[in-house]
Design goal:
- The complex is a heterodimer of chains A (110) and B (208).
- Chain A has 110 residues and is mostly helical.
- Chain A has one domain.
- Helix content of chain A is 74%, strand content 0%.
- The termini of chain A are far apart.
- The relative contact order of chain A is 0.10.
- With 208 residues, chain B is mostly helical.
- Chain B has a single domain, classed as Up-down Bundle (Four Helix Bundle (Hemerythrin (Met), subunit A)).
- Chain B is elongated.
- The termini of chain B are far apart.
- Classes of the chains: A mainly alpha (110), B mainly alpha (208).
- At the A-B interface, helix 1, helix 2 and helix 3 of A face helix 1, helix 3 and helix 6 of B.
- Chain A: One of its GO terms (molecular function) is proton transmembrane transporter activity.
- Chain A: Its main location: membrane.
- Chain A: Heterooctamer of two A chains, two B chains, two C chains and two D chains.
- Chain A: Belongs to the cytochrome c oxidase bacterial subunit 4 family.
């Protein structure tokens, strides 16, 4: 093993630990998926409440996908990736939020 | 900013030269995928407006969506993300190409299952509800959004076939490893997009 590059400890965990991460990710994302489908399927949430609940569950699940499947965490060596993802999230929020704002505003004026 | 970029998915110390090469190529691929997410964001924004104001007398979301079918599609894609994770582990730790091929094969089957279920769902919407894209603005953007994701998944399956051929011909060399790592990022991000689709299109459509 050559070690001329600095490999952060968080990445040098070995196969068994890494497999556990994937299994943890699978359990977490499956639970969040079933929670979302269960809440809507049982008719427990609807309308504005449903949107808020679904939005929260989706954000948590997307974070879990990045954390467990794509290995993006807060480790120093991932900060470039994390900054890129957060910047994209900002652009996405601006585009979606701005479009929805303008189109709904225009609709009320028509 | 750190000088050394470690892409999230990595080879670690199991293959140091390729691990170092991955820093740049995989980061570049991340940038490409983020611009792909921006494309989906615009489709989502249009859908958000059209699914409320663009029904135009046609069928509404709650009339044509099917919870059970969406759940099966979601589980197929979620399982395929996990099997690709196992493939990535085999890529990193086992020089054994058999485990890698088996997990990739499982991912391919689950991805194909997803495509089949989604195509069946569209066929049901069209035949039972006459919900074709030209009926309303809502249906136009619905098929455009889910169709764009469908085409991405299909492209992912094609990519897997190409990688299977490369594995057979070149073996597990550095270039093949790097391509598989990029395919992994592509595949996991498609699942992320699907999370947004089932939450904001199907589930919020079914809970008006």
């Amino acid at each position: 093993m050559s070690d001329d590059h600095d490999l952060p400890r968080s990445e040098d965990v070995g196969e068994a630990a890494e497999r556990r991460q994937y299994i943890r990710g699978a359990v977490a994302t499956l639970a969040l998926t079933l929670a979302a489908f269960g809440l809507v399927g049982s008719g427990y949430v609807s309308g504005g409440t449903a949107l808020v609940v679904l939005c929260t569950l989706a954000i948590v699940q997307i974070a879990a996908h990045f954390r467990f499947f794509l290995h993006i965490d807060l480790a120093r060596s991932h900060r470039d990736d994390l900054q890129l993802i957060l910047f994209t999230a900002l652009i996405v929020a601006l585009m979606v939020g701005g479009t929805v704002w303008i189109l709904f505003d225009q609709h009320t004026r028509m | 900013m750190s000088d050394v970029r470690h892409p999230g998915l990595n080879l670690g110390t199991t293959d140091s030269p390729v691990h170092d090469a991955a820093e740049e190529t995989v980061f570049g691929f991340w940038v490409l995928m983020m611009s792909d997410l921006a494309l989906f964001a615009v489709l989502f924004a249009t859908y958000a407006a059209m699914s409320v104001h663009g029904i135009a007398g046609g069928p509404a979301p709650v009339e044509i969506f099917d919870l059970k079918s969406t759940l099966w599609q979601t589980l197929a894609l979620l399982a395929s993300s996990f099997t690709f994770g196992m493939a990535a582990l085999a890529l990193k730790y086992d020089d054994d190409r058999r485990a890698l091929s088996l997990w990739l094969g499982a991912t391919f089957v689950l991805g194909a299952l997803f495509l089949g279920l989604e195509a069946r769902d569209w066929a049901r919407m069209v035949t039972e509800h006459g919900a074709t894209p030209q009926v309303s603005g809502f249906l136009s953007i619905f098929y455009l959004l889910t169709g764009t994701h469908f085409v991405h998944v299909a492209a992912g399956l094609l990519w897997m076939l190409v990688m299977a051929a490369q594995l057979a011909i070149f073996g597990l060399d550095g270039a093949v490893k790097l391509r598989l790592m990029r395919l992994a990022i592509y595949w996991h991000l498609l699942d992320v997009v699907w999370v947004a689709i089932f939450s904001f299109v199907f589930l919020s459509g079914l809970a008006p």
